[in-house]
Amino acid sequence: MSTPATQPAAGESPSASIGDFDHHADTYREDVARAIAWSGRDVDYFAEGKADLLVSLAARRLGDPSGLRVLDVGCGVG
Q1: How far apart are the first and last CA of the chain?
Q2: H helices within the chain, ranges in order?
Q3: Inter-CA distances, 45 with 6, 11, 72, Å
């Protein structure tokens, strides 16, 4: 399985990279689950851990994070 490019190659349009990702959209969750199977944890465990870490970081840097609105760019097929 090839990994999607994080940035378009020189001369490539951003929509080409989006198209590359769209090719994997149907199997994204399963692909990630396969990649982390060694851990004995599921995809949601890592997503929740990342969210908890971001809330903690926001609290330390910005104060009370309850009023923040955020978007996880690159958040899978969401």
Answers
A1: 21
A2: 14-22, 28-36, 43-62
A3: 24, 38, 16
User: What residue numbers bound the domain in which 43 lies?
Assistant: 14-67
The model's pLDDT over 22-69, given as tens digits with 9 standing for 90+, comes to: 777 788 889 889 999 999 999 899 989 999 999 999 999 999 999 999
Number of other CB atoms surrounding residue 29 within 10 Å: 14
d(CA 55, CA 74): 18
For the record, the structure tokens of 65 come out as 């994070």
pTM above 0.85, yes or no: no
Could you give the number of structural domains in the chain?
1
Separation between Cα atoms, residue 8 and residue 18, nearest integer Å: 9
Torsion 69-67-42-37 (CA) sign: positive
Structure-token pair, residue 22: 């769209």
